[in-house]
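Question: does this match?
>
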Amino acid sequence: ERTKRRARLIKEGSIDNPAVPKYLDQAIKFHGTCNSMCPEFECLQRRYQKMVDSFELVNQSLFAKSFHRPAAGMDAPLPEDVRTPKALVDTLRYLVFEIVMNTPWHECHGFVRDRTRSIRQDFTYQNYEGEEAVICTEIIARFHILALHMMSGQPDNQEYMELEQLDKSLTTLGFIYLDGQIPDADQNRKGFPNEPEFRAYTILRHLRDRYVEKDDIRKWPAEVVYSDRVQHALRIYQAVQRYDRATNYGFHAQHYVKTFFELVKSKETDFITACLLQVYFPEIRRFSLKIMAENYMKTSKMTSVEFIKDFLCYESVEQAEHEIRHYGLSIAEHSADGVPFFYLIPGKGSFDGMVAIVWLADIFLTVL
């Protein structure tokens, strides 16, 4: 039946014939026609294959279309397999307000991440860049950033997958924002009220490379570049870039570590931005501890665990102690002016760099 349906649509000129090559600008504009959260064919298919998620068990109206990885030999979707922009907005509204808002993150995260990927996929099938695509992609990007924090420490947390989907969402938004600068027939340009927020997230996803030095940022509207959000993100970017270039100079690098965490704690850093910056904490703390172990004096109060906890923004002294010992460093008790305190025992070669190498290797193997 689907084969006959596809042949009829090709004959009517509603969809392209995959057997007939053509230039991209000659392709037929594809429009989804599904008005529900999940196409009927997928509902039947997943019931038959017993691939129904626990959130979908009550009735078929709660089915949400799952992500389908493109593969060689698979037929292109039919119009009824792809949801309309309105249906995609309704699906995301359901996922956020009925699932995320009423379910613990560790229980619903995997389901919502898959279904939001499917939402972005349906927009891509239609090459749709309207207001619905912008709103949905912005919300999905925020979801991935919040997940970085909410899922931290969970046994099934896969941070690299979250960052991958976040980067794809930000890339999509970047193209939409850029296309919006092209004037229409009346010489009007589209305005995106949330563009400064997501341009700032884009900068913060490139703290370790030369993204800002590229020409891309020069194409942004001036009101976006000079917005408070983007300027704050640029200050954080500069602190990390200078820290990276000064890691061999001990105290000089520590100055930029301090600047980074002061910017994190500033009132300009909102909760979602802090969730994104949290990704960089382990690496920056690791190099800072290495500098302390190899350059600080034993009697310095800057080696006290209390100072390290405040300096590197650990949530507790216990967390700071755990990470110090994790890198093979030792802690001892000392007394200053009759007041005892615990301190990091400095010394050349005391920092166990192999722990960091093994940690990176574990991530690499997990990705593979």
Remarks:
- Residues 159-180 form the longest helix (22 residues).
- The two ends are 39 Å apart (CA to CA).
